[in-house]
Specification:
Keywords: Membrane, Transmembrane, Transmembrane helix
InterPro entries: DUF4381
Helix content: 55-70%
Shape: rod-shaped
Order of helices and strands: HHHHHHH
Structural class: mainly alpha
Number of strands: 0
Number of helices: 7
Radius of gyration: 33 Å
Distance between the termini: 94 Å
Largest sheet: none
Low-confidence stretches: none
Length: about 150
């Protein structure tokens, strides 16, 4: 009778062969399809947002082309650019007739600040009458900030 505790009868454990990497299990196909779908949706939404904001990029380029705002004519040009942006982003009946203090109040309301009626951008209302520009750099900064951050209704 053989001794059951004899170590000469030990054998190695039989390890199954490794699983192949390809083809993946159905769950991985589902995850890959979901990720691809999410990437497509994100890309389409990003493209739509980029197209919707084309008017902002054009306005910022025009503001940069004006250069330093030091004359009433350049301040009036800034106001004209802001008006065109507002006409794109808000209903025409709400924006088209605004001038002077009402125009500045609209810009304040849509920027959630008082930078237009109280700050350096108050020169926008006086620019058509030839009033000197006090701080053109601040005026241009406020205009850029409004173009970048206003919330349109379109």
């Amino acid at each position: 009778m053989a001794d059951e505790a004899d170590l000469s009868r030990l054998a190695d454990i039989v390890v199954p062969p490794p699983l192949p990497w390809w083809p993946p299990a159905p769950g991985w196909w589902i995850i890959a399809a979901a990720l691809l779908g999410a990437a497509v949706i994100t890309a389409v939404a990003g493209l739509a947002r980029w197209r919707r904001n084309a008017y902002r990029r054009a306005a910022l380029a025009e503001l940069a082309a004006i250069g330093p705002v030091s004359t009433p004519a350049s301040a009036a040009a800034v106001s004209a650019i802001l008006k065109r942006v507002a006409l794109v982003a808000y209903p025409r009946v709400e924006v088209a007739s605004l001038t002077g203090e009402a125009w500045l109040a609209f810009l304040d309301r849509t920027s959630a600040s008082d930078a237009f009626s109280q700050g350096a951008a108050a020169d926008l209302a006086r620019a058509p009458f030839g009033a000197p520009v006090r701080d053109g750099g601040a005026l241009l900064g406020v205009a850029r900030r409004w173009v970048t951050h206003h919330r349109g209704e379109t």
